[in-house]
Amino acid sequence: MAITPSKRITVPASLLLLTAAAALLLFVLLPSLSPSSSSPVALSCPDGSSHTTTTKSPDPISTTPDDIAWLKAQLSRNSIQDPPSSPAAWHTLRKGINPRTRAQQLEDLLHFKGISHYDDDDASKHTALPCPGELLVEEHHSNYGEPWAGGRDVFEFLASSSRLAPTDHVLEIGCGTLRVGLHFIRFLDPARFHCLERDELSLMAALRYELPSQGLLHKRPLILRGEEMEFDRFGSDVIYDLIYASAVFLHMPDALVWVGLEKLSGRLKPEKGRIFVSHNIKFCSRLGGDECTKRLTQLGLEYVTKHTHDSLLFNHYEIWFEFRKLKAWSNQSSMH
């Protein structure tokens, strides 16, 4: 049986050139069409196969000018005016809202227990972490004399100034009720945040309310009650990238502060590690400039500079003093 040759199909040269150009253009554009915040990464699986995933850039620490401009635009878009100037003006804005003071909320919790609740013996059987009413109404948010929102300001300044990474180790001396610490705990990898706090009520608020209510129990921060500078309780091999004391050293005897600095100097990471102290450093200035420098040098520390950091939400600023390891000591540490 004879095989009949198929008919030859001819394609115009102009069409071939057009197709090739389109393919080249698509090849050039494909990389730019992928999301800018992530890049594909090929991963090998145990069975020999592979799949592609994306790596996400870390969230920024500080609020940017673009963030502020965006929020102001949202306020304008929703016709949100300047805050009312009187209680009566605030009241006129409320539509179906029944505000309660913390004292009133606490009374309701203690006497009326809300709308639906378990009574008597059943009351303790259905709540995994029973919390005192005083903490539930957040009375501890007023314990330290300034708005709770100020904790975010402190975190942004310290984390940015120390070039903090989620894998770093942070020690707060006197974390109180975690006004600042919550932001560090959320940012850092698990078990990277340590705190030494002496006040029992503050510890109760931090552990029984703040960590559970913020969904941060999985971060496993190590928060210990201690009266003195007992930093060895966190382990002898922990080296910190950031150590800070917010409004703590000014309430301590100078001698105790120097004891703390002596213990902390050996726990500070060479080169990168920083110690930040807020408000003032009278423990140092009372000695006189030369004597203070000499004392710091003996501990392997040096004073870096003074910072003024503004608040994002209210008319407030904080003064911070920065210390680091002496370069000579840092070099010796890296050699061993």
CATH superfamily of the domain at 141-335: Vaccinia Virus protein VP39
Strands side by side in the biggest sheet: 5-4-3-6-7-9-8
Low-confidence stretches: 1-9, 25-39
CATH class of the domain at 141-335: Alpha Beta
Largest sheet: 7 strands, mixed
Structural class call reads alpha/beta
Please provide the count of β strands.
9
Cα-based radius of gyration, to the nearest Å: 29 Å
* SSE string: HEEHHHHHEHEHEEHEHHEEH
CATH topology of the domain at 141-335: Rossmann fold
Total number of helices: 12
Write down the overall mean pLDDT.
84
CATH architecture of the domain at 141-335: 3-Layer(aba) Sandwich
Shape: globular
The separation of the N and C termini measures: 89 Å
Taken as a percent bin, the fraction of beta residues is: 15-25%
Amount of helix: 25-40%
Protein name: S-adenosylmethionine-dependent methyltransferase
Keywords: Signal
Biased composition (Polar residues): 47-63
Region (Disordered): 40-63
What does this protein structure show overall?
Residues 47-63 have a biased composition (Polar residues). Residues 1-38 form the signal peptide. By secondary structure, the protein is an alpha/beta fold. It has a domain at 141-335: Rossmann fold, CATH 3.40.50. Helices cover 37% and strands 16% of the residues. The protein has helices spanning 13-33, 65-77, 87-93, 102-112, 133-136, 150-161, 181-187, 200-213, 254-265, 282-285, 289-298, 327-335, and strands spanning 38-44, 50-56, 170-173, 193-197, 222-225, 242-245, 274-278, 301-310, 317-325. Strands 5-4-3-6-7-9-8 form a seven-stranded mixed sheet, sandwiched between helices. A two-stranded antiparallel ribbon has the order 1-2. Helix 6 (150-161) packs across helix 7. The protein is globular, with a radius of gyration of 29 Å. The model is unreliable at 1-9 and 25-39 (pLDDT under 50).
